[in-house]
Amino acid sequence: xxxxxxxEPLSPxxxxxxxxxxxxxxxxxxxxxMLYQAFIDHSVLCFPGQELAAADQLRFANFFGxxxxxxxxxxxxxxxxxxGQRGMMYVSNIRENGKLIGVLPDGEMMxxxxxxxxxxxxxxxxxxxxxIPSQGGNTLFANLYAAYEALPQKTKDKIENLVTRIVYDxxxxxxxxxxxxxxxxxRAQHRLVKTHPDSGRKTLYLSRxxxxxxxxLPADEGEELLLELFDHCxxxxxxxxxxxxxxDLLIWDNRCTNHAxxxxxxxxxxxxxxxxxxxxxxxxxx
Length: 286
Ligand code: SIN
What we know:
Blueprint: E1 6-9, E2 16-19, H1 29-42, E3 44-47, H2 54-61, E4 66-67, E5 89-92, E6 95-96, E7 99-100, E8 109-112, E9 124-131, E10 139-143, H3 144-149, H4 153-159, E11 163-167, H5 175-180, E12 187-191, E13 193-195, E14 202-204, E15 211-214, H6 219-233, E16 239-242, E17 249-253, E18 257-261, E19 271-278
Parallel strand pairs: 2-3
Antiparallel strand pairs: 1-2, 3-17, 4-19, 5-19, 6-7, 8-18, 9-17, 9-19, 10-16, 10-18, 11-12, 11-15, 13-14
């Protein structure tokens, strides 16, 4: 039987909604390739109304690269770096026995790109909505191709060869926390302008939460440029706000988008299940 798969844009900025596929069932290789192409074309895909067990979500993640399916562990080495395997985690404000069941902090989160503090960042992230608050808790996606393309040529020339330092504090929700934090936090250096390996398009690669400074510029000059570029990337014309519904499955491309989260009522529950997708040749340990 041939599936009729419907692909509809989610917004003029980025994203597509995909219907007509049941991700609990096997998906043939041709369809997997078609989904990968849609992922490259739209950067964010939403599959509404899926009723997925964790194993279904991991199988789906594997269509897009190497799904990180190990038993997630939270151990750290002597330098405070996480040593556990990457794996499933909840993004949630729910606490059991006084402890968060998820890893990311509550409330609003600034724009960031998952795994940018690693030498080999996550290619993609998948997030599946289990419990959603009555308001807020939207995930915002910024199109970093469009943000790059809209820059004046003079700025493009200035930033073409710059390299940034990216750092991540697992407890931080804003830039001040991250910058003030412990110097042994995991960090990496990346080019500020990258060429996406699949689309061949140029994209900005920086985020307000994680980009600490620009390696080759004096601190003040670098900070001024970063703040200008953060404001630019977050302009409404580059941002799509996803209002979650239970059973939405999203996948986004961390190589050309940033995402952020809006606040939501602390007394309401929010629970999403996350599997990341690594580059196939990335180290398996974190
Ligand atoms: C994330 O940053 O990976 C989670 C986004 C969200 O909670 O909406």
